[in-house]
Design a protein that fits this description.
The chain contains 4 helices and 18 strands. The chain is an alpha+beta fold and 275 residues long. The chain is globular, with a radius of gyration of 18 Å.
Length: 275
């Protein structure tokens, strides 16, 4: 399944004990020798909510949250009876806390969903980032391989560094700069890196280097971080369309409370993995 091109393999993991999920994520995510994906996402039994999500990146690392992934997981669970089809909204437990997902149906398919993603956090310790003397990571100058940009940090349950740049995002060497930012010493848990062009106050264009997966077609939490930071810096209004290589995501944040993310859900195929 994918949400705006951000693709994962979804697994009904109920009753599957003893699986080495990090190793399986690496094997499945290989785009030449596996299925090919940004990682794997598991549907597991919830403790109090309707569903629990676990997410493993293409490199096998476990991540706290995925905005595109949680929409698709909800559709996966509803259409396969893991969660009763009549359930709406759906409470999904994640390592970044419980998230509320409202599915949009067309016939027997979930084609989109809206997610209450929780409040963005901007404190330096919440990202986390190391920037002595800074309470927040805002307009923090960084130069890498001759490229100078200003980083803005936020946590959406996972860490993000956002740079608003004048260079067209399509021309920026994200494949070269992204991995350096991801593993920069100032980010002890690594970081997702977003570069952004402001089209107008209701529309931005972005690309993402995703922690643990690399270049990706879209990132839901990244779009939320972009929308929240853009609103905080008054670059954008409370509702902004974030255009990514894989499609558009709609982000709403009035300046307080939870960020609301809306985007598509699409199933591509299903199959059996022979261990």
């Amino acid at each position: 399944m994918h949400g705006a091109g951000n693709d994962y393999v979804y697994i009904d993991a109920r009753g599957l004990d003893g699986v080495d999920w990090p190793s399986l994520a690496v094997k499945m995510s290989d785009r030449h020798k596996g299925v090919g994906s940004d990682g794997i996402i598991l549907a597991t039994p919830a403790k109090k909510g309707h569903l629990q999500m676990r997410m493993f990146n293409a490199d096998g690392s476990e991540s706290e949250m995925c905005g595109n992934g949680i929409r698709c997981l909800t559709g996966f669970a509803l259409t396969r009876g893991i969660v009763p089809r009549s359930t709406s909204p759906v409470t999904v437990e994640t390592l970044a806390g419980d998230k509320i997902v409202t599915p949009k149906w067309e016939g027997d398919r979930v084609v989109a969903a809206t997610v209450s993603m929780g409040e963005p956090k901007f404190a330096i310790e919440d990202i986390p980032a190391i920037a002595p003397g800074q309470a927040m990571l805002m307009d923090y100058p960084l130069t890498i391989d001759g490229y100078t940009f200003k980083l803005n940090g936020a946590s959406m349950g996972n860490p993000h560094a956002v740079a608003f740049i004048d260079t067209p995002v399509d021309q920026f060497p994200l494949d070269k700069i992204g991995p350096i930012v991801e593993r920069h010493p100032m980010f002890p848990k690594r970081v997702n890196f977003e570069i952004v062009n402001i089209i107008d106050e209701n529309h931005v264009k972005a690309r993402v280097w995703e922690r643990g997966s690399g270049l990706t077609e879209a990132c839901g939490t990244g779009a939320c971080a972009i929308g929240a930071i853009g609103r905080l810096k008054r670059y954008t209004r409370s509702e902004v369309t974030v255009s990514l290589p894989g499609g558009d995501l709609l982000v709403r944040w009035p300046g307080e409370g939870p960020v609301i993310l809306e985007g598509p859900v699409e199933e591509v195929f299903e199959g059996t993995w022979e261990a």
